[in-house]
## 1
Amino acid sequence: MSAPRLLYTLALWLILPVLLLRLLWRARRQPAYLEHVAERFGFYRQRIEGPCLWIHAVSVGETRAAEPLIRALRARHPGYRILLTHMTPTGRETGAALFGDTVTQCYLPYDYPGAVARFFGHFQPRLGLLMETELWPNLVACAVARGLPLCLVNARLSERSARGYQRTGLLARDVLRGLYAVAAQTEADAQRLRALGAQHVTVAGNLKFEVEVPAEELARGAAWRASLGARPVILAASTREGEEAQLLEAWTAAPRGEVLLVIVPRHPQRFDEVAALIDRRGLRQQRRSQALQIGADTEVLLGDSLGEMYFYYAACDVALLGGSFQPHGAQNLIEPCALGRAVVLGPSTYNFAEAAAAAVAAGAALQVPDLARGVETALRLLDEPQRLAACGAAGRAFAMAHQGAAQRILGLLPENI
């Protein structure tokens, strides 16, 4: 073991109590964090008969992005089982909703050498694909020692993250050089990864453009929207902490008429918190989990359901993109664009920097400095149906023009596994 990795591993052992306390803390809001704890240390009950291909998708966004890649891998290797690992319960729930029992799911263990060795020994994958920026020194070192081709796919690396990795020096370089291939989302991501020491880096595009809208979700959303008659719908999609309060302040101050506001928080453990914020503003609300029929006097619908983002996008006229109005780098803007919905972005888009800039340039999205302007812009779009339709059409064209990442990634992987 190299000196940098040894120091890293010792530090990891020292913070073990912190990791356990963090699980307990997160379980206060999301009890599922206390399920399958043994898996986080490399102990598994699931068995896979025959060869498998492993994909690691940390949470919801990475799991959804992995869907087209999983389809492509199944077509190319029909005799292989897919092993899908996560780090969060919501990622695991999303995987179950998308794939059911057609994949095997579990948690990836924490990056302790013994836990990682048990993971590889138990499942014995033939190929490993890490989604986006999952770089764990002991995991990569163990894969190299076992001769397992390990690839970083749909890779993105912001300037801020790159500076963090630079501070680790040789540790980051050794991790990146242990990868079989890197498929970066953009040329800027590729350059930052190469500067840190990554080899065999190719720009393959963003898998999130490979969106395949579930027809059932689209039909249900459209039917629900039709049930509202002429009443317009503005969706605040995947909102993060701090955004809902600002949104509701702007909403109560705006001349909004009969417009229905739908708020879908990014994290399910915050549903009750957001409901309380709506009540404090004196707005009449309903919950998606409690009612399908929207009362004529309802002003806000709280989207407290999981796995229904396509439903919500299909049901709205304009989408305010959560995570972009606080410094969280934005959520996925590609899904609403692909469905032909006008998108209003805030200033923070570093998770989708190139896609956001391209969407704005194409007329598929509008960028504003804050939520007050966001609400104002969304309401103004409702009053300009031709502009609204043009934004939607530009969004569809934008999404279609950037597809093909799954096949490009497939071309980088070893054929004989």
## 2
Amino acid sequence: MGDTPFPVSDLLLQFEPSSELPMYLQLYEQLRAAIVDDCRIPRGAKLPSTRALSESLRVSRNTVIAAFEQLLAEGYLEGRTGSGSYVAHALPEACLDARPQASAPGYGRPPARISARGRRMCDSMTSTSIAHVVPAPAKPKTFRVHAPSFDAFPYDVWRKMSQRTWDRIRPEMLGYGSPAGWRPLREAIAHYVRASRAVRCDWQQVIVTSGAKQAMHLVAQTMTDPGDPVLIENPSYNGIRMAFLLSGAVMRPVPVDHDGLDIAAAEQLCPEARLVYVTPSNQYPLGSTMSLNRRLALLDWARRRDGFILEDDYDSEFRFSGRPVASLQGLDREGRVLYVGTFSKVLMPSLRLGYLIVPPDLVDSFIAARAHYDWSSPVIDQATLAEFMNEGHFARLIRRNRALYAERQQILVEAGRRHLRGLLDISPRACGMHLLGWLPKGIDDDACAATLHANGIESLPLTRFASEPFNPGGLLLGYAPFDQRAIETGVERMAAILEREVVPPR
């Protein structure tokens, strides 16, 4: 083919800024189609440099780099040192058979025959980290977010608790179970949150769910009708967005600052809203803690509006200095707060157990709603967890992980100071399982995360959680499952990738 680059810009590539599909994936799909479907780009053709193509397409160079990295990783392109990128002469046989309309597994464009709700669920996967779409490998890659420390988990203790459950099995434990959950576990949860989180409840208010996400969907389906406005933090957890999207609610994003969500500003923005979602103990993903004044103002808003507050308390156990911040629910005297907790961050995500604590007058409604999902979570697992908590193993594991995560966060911060200066600004936080690193202005964090992922480093871009772009962008870096060597090696590799392929020379 010679060394003259193929005129890719002549292919009339088009981008949709309003699409949930990141720009680099839009470019990847169009280049892949031009290579495979109609051979508009012939085998062996040399492609323009990433810089030249970004200028001709008027997109970020990082966007082009990320698209090329994906094509290289999948075998559509091959790189030649000192020469550039070329279309592979021999594409994998599976690639030649692939078509965008094929029914192969994946999260591509949904077929037209599915419902609008199904289409929204499929579309949402295009803006989700690959780590959350496909089964994660047994050993997480640095710096995966949301993963606990599996090396610190007391496997022998859990195995004994599980065996004891089977030794004491009763006929009622083999049936469907109560939609509200196994009573001993509900009692254990109520005791735990009263002692550690200052939650005001009795065991009858606790509803065991299949993870925190199911609890959020329960709230969205039970407390909103299509068209109802709801307030959410901006940025915020993507799981709550999907819950409200599927319920038909209209989300009104509210910016957060170092004191948390400003309900006075939110009320001006949307005075008719009667439900708000917040993460007051550790704002996700920014990490701020809601001040007492803001908490009281939020409760006052709920009283005046006859509204409700959905409090997501996803990892408050891991505060590294002093006692954990008390829950917002503990300040509630009028039954306005619905409180969500999870065991995924302390124990293991595969357990799929969480809980929802609701005001007394809503208990029956939520138990009925819970029955319409999967009726109940596995009773054997609930019984094992109840024993694990009642014998003190759960509290001991939290204390052990709290010290471990504090140490690992410090390792990440110090490694970042040594290797990431000018590339990624990482500062310590008082709690949590991840840190937020700020990129230099002008760097596309979504394309940056894609480049890192193609090179074996996992991260989540901040803009993935925002309703409006952040400038500068940022990357979420998890540290909980990684020892010192993994963290330091990961930071060194990340620095090399950022300096070589993402951040312009200083």
